Amino acid sequence: MREPEPPMIDQNGQPVRKAALKTYLETYNAGARGSKEFGGLPRALVIICDGLVLGKTTYVKCVDGQVQLSRRKDGSVVGGGL
Q1: Over 90: is that where the pLDDT of 3 sits?
Q2: How far apart are CA 81 and CA 61, in angstroms?
Q3: Cβ atoms < 10 Å from Cβ of 24
Q4: Cα distance between residue 30 and residue 22, in whole Å
Q5: What is the pLDDT of residues 4-63, one digit of tens each?
Q6: Can you give the pLDDT at residue 5?
Q7: How crowded is residue 16: how many other Cβ atoms within 10 Å of its Cβ?
Q8: Which of 6, 22, 57, 73 could form a disulfide with 82 if both were Cys (CB 3.0 to 4.6 A apart)?
Q9: Which positions ≥6 away from 41 have C-beta within 8 Å?
Q10: Confidence of residue 1 (pLDDT cuts 50, 70, 90)
Q11: Can you give the chain as a three-state secondary structure string?
Q12: CA-CA distance, 20 to 10, in Å (whole number)?
């Protein structure tokens, strides 16, 4: 039997909650890549969002559940259920 996947970890080594993921996505969509705020995003989330193409969906595990991420036509990334 396979072990469950661990939740995404933030820059401080703490598991990510859905509320924090929503904030991270807002920062990611702001697009200020060189900013201090963008530097605080979990690297895994940036890699996942950068690889997400229009019409593609992926899932991110948080402490309080799984969130479906998808890219909109305007290029922003949204999380279902946030």
Answers
A1: no
A2: 13
A3: 24
A4: 13
A5: 778 889 988 999 999 999 999 999 999 788 889 899 999 999 999 999 999 889 999 999
A6: 78
A7: 22
A8: 22
A9: 11, 24, 27, 28
A10: low
A11: CCCCCCCCECCCCCECCHHHHHHHHHHHHHCCCCCHHHHCCCHHHHHHHHCCCCCCEEEEEECCEEEEEEECCCCCEEEECC
A12: 9
Specify the length of the chain in residues. 82
> How far is CA 11 from each of CA 39, 53, 70, 71, rounded to the nearest angstrom?
9, 25, 23, 23
**Dist. CA 42–CA 49, nearest whole Å:** 11
Structure tokens, 34: 């060189």
Place of tokens 């904030």: 23
Cα first-last separation, the chain: 31
| CB-CB contact of 62 with 42 (8 Å) | no
